[in-house]
Design goal:
Helices cover 36% and strands 9% of the residues. By secondary structure, it is an alpha/beta fold. The longest helix is centred in the C-terminal third of the chain and has 24 residues. The C terminus is likely disordered.
Length: 278
């Protein structure tokens, strides 16, 4: 079904135009826009990992969200900026400008409906900066619009207690966490016999640089991995995936409730809208 894991009553695309026009309190309704990718995830996982994870996590979160918290999820944007994986067959990628333009026009459409709270829920590690830029630009166009450029993994969750220290640091793609989650969400699509463990080449000892973090360097996936996996997929278990999914769902349910209550501190600032330099 089109809604996937999202409860049908929380799926915006199942409403009618009359439902949208007559909805009360739209300014405080939270709208979620999943932003994902279709890209290689090694020999053991399908191309749809990021799309499945964001929809699965949000679906489980919305299922436990109190009925009194108004929130609807849009259909996912499944194509993202995935050019780091371009040399692996199966990857579909769009440019940063295309993704930013699409997100911006979605934001304009949501604002035109009368909603004033929109969260971009990104699940692909190659595009958070694009999502942030799109949210900031939409905020400039619509001063009464609250936008939240969020990453699906950034809510409190059980990763730290489940993953090995090396995996926490460098297991960034198709490793333990993603494999475990997919075992919980789409077990029939995980090719267990093809799981591998492959970590990226080490930088010199004492280097301040890293593949991600505060001081990164630009890379493509085939710079770091022959298989397309960056991490240890062999360590994943179903129990780990179920625990991760449960913790992420709890984190997102709590965050959505907070977004519903959010009041932008700038709304009472008398200097808002004046010309200031930063």
């Amino acid at each position: 079904m089109l809604h996937g894991w999202i409860p049908p009553s929380r799926f915006l695309a199942y409403l009618t135009t009359e439902d949208i026009a007559s909805m009360p309190g739209k300014a405080d309704v939270v709208i979620l826009q999943p932003v994902a990718a279709i890209e290689q995830h090694g020999p053991h996982l399908p191309l749809a990992v990021d799309s499945a994870i964001v929809m699965g996590v949000l679906g489980h979160a919305l299922a436990r969200l109190p009925a009194g918290v108004p929130c609807y999820c849009l259909p996912p944007i499944c194509y993202g900026k995935s050019n780091e994986h371009i040399r692996f067959p199966g990857t579909v990628t769009v440019s940063a400008s295309t993704l930013a333009a699409l997100l911006g026009e979605v934001a304009d459409s949501v604002h035109r409906m009368g909603f004033r709270k929109l969260a971009f829920v990104n699940s692909h590690g190659g595009q958070p900066q694009v999502v942030q830029v799109a949210a900031r630009d939409a905020r400039e166009r619509h001063p009464d619009f609250d936008l939240f450029p969020l990453f699906v993994w950034n809510v409190p969750n059980a990763s730290a207690e489940l993953l090995a220290p090396k995996e926490l640091e460098t297991g960034i793609h198709a490793g333990t966490a993603e494999t475990a989650l997919m075992m919980a969400l789409l077990p029939d699509q995980v090719r267990m016999d093809k799981r591998v463990c492959e970590y990226p080449p080490m930088l010199p000892a004492g280097s301040m640089l890293s593949i991600e973090g505060a001081l990164p360097y630009a890379w493509l996936t085939d710079d770091l991995s022959r298989s397309g996996v960056i991490g240890d997929a062999t360590a994943a278990t179903l129990a780990m995936g179920e625990h991760l999914l449960d913790s992420l769902a709890d984190g997102w349910a709590a965050l959505i409730a907070e977004l519903h209550q959010f009041q932008n501190p700038a709304s009472g600032n008398p200097a808002r809208g004046s010309e200031r330099s930063s």
